[in-house]
Automatic annotation (TrEMBL):
GO terms for MF: ATP binding; ATP hydrolysis activity; transmembrane transporter activity
Tagged with keyword Kinase: no
GO cellular component: membrane protein complex; plasma membrane
Pfam families xref list: ABC_tran
Positions of the ABC transporter domain: 22-252
Annotated keywords: ATP-binding, Nucleotide-binding, Transport
Name this protein carries in UniProt: ABC transporter ATP-binding protein
């Protein structure tokens, strides 16, 4: 029996191990509204092939969410290619895109996005169900315990604090078994202490072998990353370890 806590092995349509590579080559994403064109992403090249805690840093409007949507196969580039786990999404069929999305990436949002009518356990089990995992109930119980909420499994979202709700959302993402976690401003609605705890939980997932990509406008958070990808006006203007070396989460302040 596999452990619910391990990222599941990715296989391609032929049942071969496909890895967790993310490859964006010359990606542009333009939006045209009322005759004006916004270059949300412009000639972006990005390659991630390691399990790491990656922060995408940039000001509002720099293209962070657009980039995350590309990696998560939720949007298509205007030009360029996106490959996820070796599959070229830009030319893949709709069914293939859905399959690769379902078994590769999981999203975590700023506002948690829990189903209000479901308990913590049911929200988490949903993740395991969608991914088609065996024994979704066992998986849900295991990941809820992992995020420290084993005792709150029967609580609804409104009965949980913001930090607890974000833990449930992370547990739901982990329950899929998918090896890539995409988190859009996951601490944006949390106080500093709770935010650091959530970052710690996400960083631990990278240490356990997942690729964790956190989008933020908060430069302080990027100090704790293994790799910082800085966006400005749709361009990658920096890509490497944090300036001055990686800081401990305990040393962050904002
Ligand atoms: N569907 C859309 N239609 C038109 N313009 C869009 C659309 N989505 C994004 N944009 C524009 O693309 C640019 C990048 O947006 P994006 O949401 O990726 O930035 P962001 O860095 O995530 O910003 P924020 O931190 O404020 O969420 C912005 O100028 C935005 O207005």
């Amino acid at each position: 029996m596999d452990s619910a806590l391990e990222p599941q092995r990715i296989v391609n349509a032929h049942g071969q191990a496909a890895g967790t590579r993310i490859d964006l080559d010359d990606v542009c994403r333009y939006f045209t509204v009322g005759g004006a064109t916004v270059k949300a992403l412009d000639q972006v090249n990005l390659h991630v092939d390691e399990s790491a805690f990656v922060v995408v840093l940039g000001a509002s409007g720099s293209g962070k969410t657009t980039l995350l949507n590309m990696i998560g196969a939720l949007d298509n580039p205007t030009s360029g290619t996106v490959r996820l786990a070796g599959v070229e999404l830009t030319s893949a069929s709709r069914a293939e895109r859905t399959r690769i999305r379902r078994h590769t990436v999981s999203f975590i949002f700023q506002s948690f996005n829990l189903f209000p009518g479901l308990t913590a356990r049911e929200n988490v089990q949903f993740g395991a169900d969608v991914a088609g995992r065996d024994e979704p109930g066992r998986v849900a119980a295991e990941v809820l315990a992992q995020v420290g909420l084993g005792e709150r499994a029967d609580h609804f979202a409104h009965q949980l604090s913001g930090g607890e709700q974000q833990r449930v959302a992370i547990a739901r993402a982990l329950a899929t078994g998918n090896p890539i976690l995409l988190a859009d401003e996951p601490t944006g609605e949390l106080d500093f202490r709770t935010g650091v705890q959530i970052l710690e939980l996400l960083r631990d997932q990278a240490r356990a072998g997942r690729t964790v990509i956190v989008v933020t406008h908060n430069r302080e958070i990027s100090r704790a990353a293994d790799r910082v990808i800085e966006l400005s006006s749709g361009h990658i203007v920096g890509d490497g370890p944090p300036e001055g070396g990686r800081a401990e989460l305990a040393d962050l302040h904002w």
